[in-house]
Amino acid sequence: MHLMWEVPPRPLTEVAVDLEIVDPPTVDKLYFWALQVNFVDRGADRGGAHIGLQYHPGYPQAGAVNWGGYHPAGRGELEGSTSELPSALDNVNTRTYRWEAGRRYRLRVLLTKPGHWRGAVSDTATGQETVIRDLFVEAEHLLRPMVWSEVFADCDHPSTMVRWSNLQATTADGGVVRALSVRTNYQTFANGGCANTNSFIDANGLGFCQQTNIARANRAGSILTLP
After folding, report:
1. Under CATH, which architecture does the 2-225 domain have?
2. What mean pLDDT do residues 73-102 have?
């Protein structure tokens, strides 16, 4: 399930969003909730990357965080610095990180110096920010932010739900852009997706939710706008 941010196509140097895992998984399958960005350098595509939390049965208490990406046209993974976080499976992109359901975590991608794009996650309850690592990408800007849920559970497994809020980006000239609208997309059933997933605005109008094993109310291509 994807939610593409409806923001002007302006060059960005930082993108951030809050993620709350409202109803966590209860089956030993991989769940991945991430913020995705594309890298651009003087108009040229420099690949893309995603930062997010994972429910990963191979990690302690199934808690993990990931910051990794790919060169254009799938030409291998992006290189980066060595994370100071441990990794239960010795994966350079996926590190051990204990998150808790019902807490908001802020995912952030930012340019720290030329060619270094940092991924960090903050526990908004404590204010503590954890740097995952830097990816090395010769790019000036970010474009086309989106958030998504990638679920490897069966379609009829117990329902899970996450909430995305405070979608914000910083432009190259220092301005701040807030995304109040998103465009929905779903992997089709023919391509291995589930027909019973849904993206919607929560009852309080605070954020965008993505839920599994629920009747779909908003079809692909719908625009969801916060009040």
Report:
1. Sandwich (2.60)
2. 96
